[in-house]
Design brief:
Pathway: Amino-acid biosynthesis; L-histidine biosynthesis; L-histidine from 5-phospho-alpha-D-ribose 1-diphosphate: step 1/9. Keywords: Amino-acid biosynthesis, ATP-binding, Cytoplasm, Glycosyltransferase, Histidine biosynthesis, Magnesium, Metal-binding, Nucleotide-binding, Transferase. InterPro entries: ATP-PRT_HisG_long, ATP_PRibTrfase_cat, ATP_PRibTrfase_CS, ATP_PRibTrfase_HisG, HisG_C, N-reg_PII-like_a/b, N-reg_PII/ATP_PRibTrfase_C. The protein has 308 residues and is of the alpha/beta class. The protein folds into three domains: 134 residues, Periplasmic binding protein-like II (D-Maltodextrin-Binding Protein, domain 2); 88 residues, Periplasmic binding protein-like II (D-Maltodextrin-Binding Protein, domain 2); 67 residues, 2-Layer Sandwich (Alpha-Beta Plaits). The protein is 29% helix and 30% strand. The chain has a six-stranded mixed sheet with strand order 2-3-1-4-11-5. Strands 8-7-9-6-10 form a five-stranded mixed sheet. Helix 5 links the parallel strand 7 and strand 8. The protein is flat. The two termini are 43 Å apart. The structure holds adenosine-5'-triphosphate (ATP), 1-O-pyrophosphono-5-O-phosphono-alpha-D-ribofuranose (PRP) and magnesium ion (MG). The site of 1-O-pyrophosphono-5-O-phosphono-alpha-D-ribofuranose has 11 residues, from strand 9 and helix 6. The site of magnesium ion has 3 residues, from loops.
Length: 308
């Protein structure tokens, strides 16, 4: 298939995908994920964990899934919300921060639990800026002018927003700004640039988004179900333990399981094995309570999928 498109760079790519989607069968869904960067690896991983088979081409912009009607578009993350809004991609995986910044009209289908970060305002360790009002009239460097402007407006503050596309943290050191507004995760980048967090603007994580017209598509529902079963499995552990029947009720009370725990008799009289599922978040608390309640030989295993 030959595409003839007269334009350059970002517009060229957008038109290339548009032409591709017109010529291609309309049944094949397209999902846009980040080509390289913080979200690429985890986006590929979640799709592969959904049982999708595809080549993770770094040099090619499109990859076809061989066992599901889906094509994967590899893009800069900033372009993903707009591509999904315009229907060039049906689905996308991108940070909530980018969706808000681009003001794209898309449906949020599922939070994905990775790419967790907070957009923060930060100032130099030696700064005299102490409260939000001190930002009035001050210069703030950021790659997120829309989000920052909305935040400042909601607080009734007027600052001079200086938009730069990266390495925002060096702004105050170079005298470019009095403060910055950028993504913080561990806080390591702020620290190594002599900055301290000052105010939280927005928290974010990667989400699956969809074009507003495609959300009811049966293949989207199928993919969403697979993604949810992968996420649910990830946040739970399969636990098998032994307990004497005398302590069984105490142990069962601690282990609700997906429905209720499975109890299997052991060869040794008066002993049973209990199989259950524990949420990762309460894991250590539960294990200690189970031991105290008489559980022995506790085995903990990862779960691949939970289909409810
Ligand atoms: N330190 C971090 N910890 C966790 N999540 C992060 C971190 N930095 C960024 N993110 C999340 O990952 C997304 C992508 O970050 P990345 O740094 O790869 O973006 P980028 O440099 O703009 O990439 P691209 O080349 O695709 O434009 C961010 O929009 C944010 O949602
Ligand atoms: O709080 P931390 O854990 O230090 O993370 C924060 C840093 O991570 C992101 O940059 P990234 O490292 O992705 O590089 P980039 O600026 O090139 O996107 C972000 O822009 C911060 O600079
Ligand atoms: Mg980007």
């Amino acid at each position: 298939m030959i595409y003839v498109v007269f334009c350059t760079s970002k517009l060229f790519l957008k038109n290339l995908f548009l032409v591709h989607s017109i010529f291609n069968t309309l049944k094949t869904l397209k999902i846009a994920i980040q080509k390289s960067g913080r979200l690429n690896e985890k986006s590929v991983e979640i799709l592969k964990n959904c049982g999708l088979t595809f080549e993770n081409y770094k040099s090619s912009l499109i990859s076809s899934v061989t066992n599901f009607p889906l094509e994967i578009l590899f893009l800069r993350d900033d372009d993903i919300p707009e591509y999904v809004q315009d229907g060039i991609a049906d689905l996308g995986i991108v940070g909530e921060n980018v969706i808000t910044e681009t003001k794209a009209k898309v449906t949020h289908l599922q939070k994905l639990g990775f790419g967790k970060c907070t957009l923060k305002i930060a100032v130099q360790n030696s700064s005299s800026i102490e409260k939000l009002e001190d930002l009035n009239g001050k210069a703030i460097a950021t790659s997120y002018p829309v989000i920052l402007e909305n935040f400042l407006q909601s607080k009734g503050i007027k600052s001079d927003i200086r938009t730069i596309s990266g390495s925002v943290e060096i702004g105050p050191g170079l005298g470019l700004s009095d403060a910055i507004c950028d993504i913080v995760s561990t806080g390591g980048t702020l620290k190594s640039n002599g900055l301290k967090p000052f105010a939280d603007v927005m928290s974010s994580e990667a989400v699956l988004i969809g074009n507003e017209a495609i959300a009811d598509h049966p293949e989207v529902a199928e993919l969403l179900q697979r993604i949810r079963s992968v996420l649910s499995a990830k946040s739970n552990k399969y636990v098998v333990l032994n307990v004497s029947k005398d302590n069984l009720q105490k142990v069962v009370n601690l282990l609700p399981g997906v429905k209720s725990p499975t109890v299997v008799p052991l060869f040794e009289p008066n002993w049973v094995a209990v199989h259950s599922v524990i949420a990762e978040a309460d894991f250590w608390d539960k294990i200690n309570s189970l031991k105290a309640a008489g559980a022995e030989g506790i085995l903990v295993m990862p779960i691949e999928k939970i289909i409810t």
